[in-house]
From TrEMBL:
CC terms in the record's Gene Ontology section: chromosome, centromeric region; nucleus
Name the UniProt record assigns to this protein: CENPP protein
Species of provenance: Chauna torquata
GO biological process: CENP-A containing chromatin assembly
Lineage: Eukaryota, Metazoa, Chordata, Craniata, Vertebrata
UniProt keyword list: Coiled coil
Coiled-coil regions, chain positions: 6-33
PANTHER family, sorted: CENTROMERE PROTEIN P (PTHR28577)
Length: 190
């Protein structure tokens, strides 16, 4: 009986230690993110936030042109989603490294293309020199349900090999559109 009580306490201690470890890692990530900004940038952001907060608390509305821009962007996004059939459901970004002219970020995207679900994970390496900025996709991983969509395995492996997201989305959009046509046709004959 006494051993059982000790076991419960040991389990609770172990759970608390794991929670402390996770919270420490999260804190270090936040600290790492905040070290990428200079003191001037942080102070400017704080002042901008305070001005926006004070403006909202006084009942001020956003400038008309800002609202118009937002509405225009929403219309454009809606059009692109209808046109391509691609809808992103979640996106996360984590900065892994940031130096003077080099930034490495890890991105995770998930969404649907018509009825086909997909997930992407990749690292984006951005390098800036005096004249221009270049971006390179590395460590690309495409995750799709393999059972029903086995025809896409070549596309997935080619995308992972070459890191060409534009070609992936174009091909996926075309495939998903014709997949829907085929599905409707087969339903018609059943």
């Amino acid at each position: 009986m006494e051993n059982n009580i000790y076991q419960v306490y040991e389990d609770e201690i172990r759970l608390l230690e794991e929670e402390i470890k996770l919270l420490t890692e999260e804190y270090e990530d936040i600290q790492q993110e905040s070290t990428f900004f200079s003191d001037e940038e942080i102070l400017m952001s704080i002042k901008l936030f305070q001005r926006e907060f004070q403006g909202e608390s006084k009942g001020h509305e956003y400038p008309v042109d800002l609202k118009a821009q937002l509405e225009s962007l929403e219309r454009d996004l809606s059009f692109l989603m209808k046109f391509t059939g691609i809808q992103f459901t979640s996106h996360s970004k984590k900065t892994l490294e940031k130096s003077g002219n080099r930034t490495v970020q890890k991105h995770r995207l998930s969404g649907n293309c018509r009825s086909l679900p997909f997930q992407l994970e990749f690292q984006l390496l951005e390098m800036q020199n005096k004249e221009n900025m270049s971006a390179l996709i590395t460590d690309l991983s495409v995750i799709m349900e393999s059972g029903e969509y086995s025809d896409l395995s070549k596309l997935v492996s080619s995308t992972e090999e070459h890191g060409n997201l534009l070609l992936f989305f174009r091909s996926l959009s075309s495939y998903a559109e014709w997949y829907e046509h085929r599905r409707c046709t087969f339903l018609h004959f059943k």
